[in-house]
Amino acid sequence: MINIILPVDFGEKSDQLVDEAVKFAKLVNGKINLIHIAPTDIGFAIGDMGYQYFPEVEENEIREELVLLNKINQKVLAHDIDCEHILKQGIAKDIILEYADTKNADFIVMGSHGRSGIYDVFIGSLTKGITKSSKIPVLVLPIHE
Question: Which CATH class is domain 2-141?
């Protein structure tokens, strides 16, 4: 079975990216490994007393993101595609590449923004970073309005 890493960010184009990744997984008899990277600064705020950390804010945000990730997982499973998911915190590019390595991934599927001709805007800086650093093929799917 082909192992596919699918990073998701819950943006407005995530549903379209998931739909396209499902089509690809069906074509290659693939399994989708969903990954969401939460920022490490979720619970921090700056105020009169400088930076403050609010663990309850971070816990609530992580809980909400896990709910969203579970929904995407269920959506993929409903298409009879094997799927698992994980949420991690840190630097997205590094974690995605490490996860792909640990899963012995065959592909990483990413989306392009399709907004402009400027490379970083068109492809996206994370997709660009993954594409430049990955040792495995990166399938960049056009995600449009």
Answer: alpha beta
